[in-house]
Design brief:
Oligomer: single chain
Mean pLDDT: 90
CATH class: Alpha Beta
CATH architecture: 3-Layer(aba) Sandwich
Helix content: 25-40%
Shape: globular
Radius of gyration: 19 Å
Strand content: 15-25%
Order of helices and strands: EEEHEHEHEHHHHHEHEHH
CATH topology: Rossmann fold
Largest sheet: 8 strands, mixed
C-alpha cells in the first residue's frame, strides 16, 4: 500500500521542453548524438577572432553565461552556449547515457556544424569541466584552451543496484513530487541558489534557473544523469598544457582546496582565484571573470 501513496498525490501539468514560449530569441533545438539539444549562437560585433563553447554545470543552462557573452562578442569571439541533455531546454531523454564521453561527442558534433574544422576555446563550469576536459582529450587538434571554472574531471561510477533503484517508477514519482512541491518553491530555490552564489541572488537569477525545472520529466531527467556511468579515463598529461583553472575563493560546493590539491600534482597549470566569489564566479563577479577569461583566450589564440 505504501508504494501506491506517491501516485495518489497529484502533479501539476508541465510544459514540454521544446515549448516555444520557453525559448530565447536565438534558441536552436537540433539532434546531435541521438538526442535533441538546445543551444544558442552569439555572433561577434567585430570581425571574428575565434570560437568559444561554454558548457554549464549541474542544474545550469545557457542562462548561466548571460553576464559573460556580451564582453566576449564585443571582443570578436563567436560564442556558443549549450544545454546538456536533461538540462535547460534540451531533451529529457531518460535512456541516454549521460557520461562525459557521450556529452563530449555531442558537443564536438555541434561545434563542427557551427564552425567546421575550426579550433575552439572550451569553457566548462563545475560538471561542465568534465565535459570540456574529455573533449580536449578526444580531439586535441581542435582544442585551443580548456578553462575549468570551479570544476575538474569526475568520472561517474554508479553501481548497478543504485542505477536500478533511481530508475524505478516509485523513486521517479517521489522525485517529481519533491521537485514540484518543495525544491521549486521560489523561496526554497532562492536559498539553494544563495548557497551556490555565496550571496543573495537576484530575482532574475531565481526565475531564470527555475524555468527548466518546470518542464515535463525534469526530475526524471536529473535522476537519469546521476545514474549514468562511464569507463572513460582522462589522461591529464594529454590536456594539462591547455588547461586553466578559475576558482571562487569561498566556494562551498566544490571548495578551493580541491583545486589546490590538484595543482600539487600538476603545478604548471595556472590557477586563478577570484576573491570573495562562491561556486558561480561568472555570475557573481562577471567583470573580474570576463577580464580573466579574455586574457586566457587571447593568450591561446
Amino acid at each position: 500500500m505504501i508504494f501506491a501513496l506517491p501516485f495518489l498525490i497529484p502533479l501539476k501539468p508541465t510544459p514540454h521542453y521544446s515549448e516555444p514560449s520557453l525559448r530565447f530569441p536565438n534558441s536552436i533545438i537540433e539532434q546531435f548524438n541521438n538526442v535533441y539539444v538546445h543551444y544558442r549562437i552569439f555572433e561577434p560585433n567585430i570581425p571574428k577572432k575565434g570560437n568559444i563553447l561554454m558548457i554549464h554545470g549541474f542544474a545550469g543552462s545557457t542562462f548561466s553565461w548571460r553576464k559573460n557573452i556580451d564582453t566576449l562578442t564585443q571582443n570578436g569571439y563567436q560564442v556558443v552556449c549549450i544545454d546538456l541533455p536533461c538540462f535547460g531546454l534540451s531533451e529529457r531523454k531518460l535512456d541516454w547515457n549521460h557520461s562525459s564521453e557521450n556529452r563530449a561527442k555531442l558537443a564536438w558534433e555541434l561545434t563542427q556544424k557551427v564552425a567546421p574544422n575550426e579550433p575552439w576555446n572550451l569553457v566548462g563550469h563545475s560538471m561542465g569541466a568534465s565535459v570540456i576536459l574529455t573533449m580536449g582529450q578526444l580531439q586535441p587538434e581542435k582544442t585551443l584552451s580548456l578553462v575549468c571554472v570551479d570544476g575538474l574531471f569526475v568520472n561517474p561510477r554508479v553501481n548497478a543496484i543504485n542505477r536500478f533503484l533511481v530508475n524505478t517508477i516509485f523513486i521517479q514519482r517521489i522525485s517529481e513530487i519533491l521537485l514540484q512541491r518543495y525544491f521549486t518553491k521560489p523561496e526554497k530555490f532562492k536559498q539553494i541558489l544563495a548557497s551556490a552564489y555565496g550571496q543573495t541572488p537576484e530575482e532574475e537569477a531565481v526565475s531564470g534557473y527555475l524555468k527548466p525545472f518546470m518542464v515535463t520529466n525534469a526530475a526524471k531527467g536529473i535522476l537519469a544523469t546521476v545514474s549514468s556511468y562511464s569507463t572513460f579515463s582522462l589522461d591529464y598529461a594529454k590536456v594539462q598544457n591547455k588547461m586553466f583553472l578559475i576558482w571562487g575563493e569561498t566556494d562551498t560546493w566544490i571548495p578551493l582546496q580541491n583545486a589546490l590539491n590538484w595543482k600539487k600534482k600538476y603545478p604548471d597549470v595556472p590557477l586563478y582565484i577570484l576573491k570573495n566569489a562562491g561556486h558561480c564566479p561568472m555570475e557573481t563577479h562577471p567583470k573580474e571573470f570576463n577580464t580573466l577569461l579574455l586574457k586566457i583566450i587571447q593568450k591561446q589564440q
